Amino acid sequence: MNAYKPFFDHVNIYDMNQEGDFVTNFMCQMLPEAPNTCKHLKQGMTLPLSNPSVNVEHDILSVQAYENGLIDKKLTRSMVVSEVTKYVRESGKTLPRRCEIGIIDQIRGWLLDSEKAMLPDKWSPDSRDALEKTFNSYYPNGKLCDVDIEKVLSNKDWVEFFSSLGRSRSLLENQDWLKSFISYFENY
Question: For the chain, what is the mean pLDDT?
Fold first, then answer.
């Protein structure tokens, strides 16, 4: 905590590993000026998902495929990303990963050191083991690794998928409809 004092007036530490619902605990403990939200969450209300996450890996893959000339220039980025996401989901394909072990080890060290510094009264060999177990569970899933773009873009199934997008009549028709829709509003 003392490391942050020169830079920030007020720092609160939130224990993400505590028992209970993550969102409810966070809202009730970290935002005391929102007591009604806390009360509603404790009563079972759920917050709307107004800004759902986007799979950044699918976006990066789409951009790289575009830059390598595999995607028809008439298609929008969001259309291609949506199709990549759909293709991965429906085909069950797993994207190959490239893991930088040195960086992963460095992140593990930073995590353990910061946890020990931020929560010294909760730090113990058991908490260290639990944290390392959680961290290590991400590695087999590829969560700490990048998509191996070169492998994906050299795979014949992926190359065919990307090139087929330009032949997709429904995608191109959607694109034409979208362009006319946008131009309609641009003229006003």
Answer: 85
